[in-house]
Amino acid sequence: MTASLDRRLFLRTLGLGAASLLTPFGCEDSGRYLDSDIERLAEQKRLEKERAGQGPFGSHRYRGYRGLADLPYFELDSKDRLRCIVEDLPPIIDFHAHLGLSVLFAPTIDWMAKTQRVRHFLDCDATNPGCELDLDVYINANFTEKDLESLRRETVAQAIWGSESAATHTIPNLLAEMDGVGIQLAVILPIALGLPFRDDSSERWAAAIASSGHEDRLLPGATVHPRDPDAVSSLRLQVARGARALKLHPAVQRFYPDSPELHPIYSECEKLGIPVFFHGGRAGIEPEYTHRYTLIRHYEGAVASHPQVQFVLGHAGARDVGDAIPFAIRHRNVWLGIHGQGISVLRELIDRVGAQRLLFGTDWPFYHLGASLAKVLIVTEGRPEERTAILQANAESLLAREAS
Ligand SMILES: [Zn+2]
To answer: Ligand 1 centroid vs 96 CA: distance in angstroms?
Structure first.
């Protein structure tokens, strides 16, 4: 394709994308995001900064992912890779991981490539010593302004010229990291972005997993875009092909989870016996106009009207974890994915919601798998039942529930 045609097509795509992305979906938009919501997010960030390191576990700051080897749970191997050395861990299940993304014009990634090192989006090991990694804050607080700029650049690159980071987000690289820290199984969650073409991560990742021969260790997820008129049949097809959970991302896909238009999708999940895995809550680094979609109260209608469907709230509500806790207590069909939460909050989640309702997740390749694992190990020291529930047993029972 010539450069000018390429550019014209790109601009047209952006135009189409912008029109559909900026139109709120379903419910009346006004009154759904209040000044008090904006203030609460600012307050959460302020308090987190103030309290970091002063919780029940004290300060846990490390230099890069390699620095986690200062903890008694890890060591570095001869190639300086992080290895978990805790002997009595169960085979861990990671309920929240992704592969490298290439959509629209970006060249297809070779998902079977093995590279020297993984460039995580928070590329803490790019330098030696690595960047400062604080385990007692919501994990994205570790991104500096410069890191965020590079994340935005990589995000665009994944859709246009191809991302150098994403080219390292491959199956062998993920498996090597899983082997290093003792993760047996990972659920790979794609997201339908609502693009006019080449928006088929779900299909391509599932195909890559199938051809890798590692279907026993990587479970593909499904995704649909709520604005896709064929969403329900597409979901059926993906599940028939082996997908084990439906990923929906209200901020990226710009929809309110309680929109009536979503209900046929939730009903189909009930019929198919698969859980809905939501991105839950405001992460705080996404574009501000998307914050409105992920307030915890907007998930209430979905969860309450589909009591037979199991819903996972990824990131345990992220920076809205204060709302996610009572929400999970109110609804027995809600599980909290713990990825991102700092160690003090993780302890609070266990104490208030119960270890039985929490699912381990890493959000790889944003971060090294060891970052999430380190937090669980710190918080569950001397509490083997909690540790096993979070790292393995809960995910196992959620996945088994589908099969029955
Ligand atoms: Zn994720």
So the answer is: 6
* Per-residue confidence (pLDDT) for residue 3, from 0 to 100: 41
Q: How remote is the CA of residue 368 from the centroid of ligand 1, in Å?
A: 13
71 domain-assigned:
yes
Q: Distance, CA 12 to ligand 1 centroid (Å)? A: 28
- Quick check: is 263 in a domain? yes
Give this prediction's pTM.
0.93
Sign for the pseudo-dihedral over CA of 132, 136, 138, 141:
negative
Closest by CA position to 65, among listed 374, 295, 400, 338: 374
**Which stretches within 259-356 are classed as H helix?**
263-272, 300-305, 321-330, 343-352
Distance 247 CA to ligand 1 centre (A): 9
Separation between Cα atoms, residue 14 and residue 30, nearest integer Å? 26
Distance 1 CA to ligand 1 centre (A): 32
Q: What is the share, in percent, of the chain residues with pLDDT greater than 70?
A: 92
Distance between CA atoms of residues 299 and 259, nearest Å: 9
Query: For the chain, what is the domain count?
Result: 1
Cβ distance 171 to 220 under 8 Å? Answer: no
Quote the domain boundaries for residue 325: 3-28+57-403
Within a 10 A sphere around the Cβ of 22, how many other Cβ atoms? 9
How many alpha carbons fall within 13 Å on the CB side of residue 207? 7
Dist CA 369 CA 185 (whole Å): 12
Residue 3 C-alpha to ligand 1 middle, in angstroms? Answer: 33
179-233 pLDDT, tens digit each: 999 999 999 999 999 999 999 999 999 999 999 999 999 999 999 999 999 999 9
Q: Is 378 helix (H, G, I), strand (E, B) or coil?
A: helix
CA of 61 to the centre of ligand 1 (A): 23
Domain presence at residue 42: no
Task: Give the pLDDT of residue 402.
Answer: 59
Q: Is the pLDDT of residue 387 over 50?
A: yes
Angle subtended by helix axes 321-330 and 343-352, to nearest 10: 20
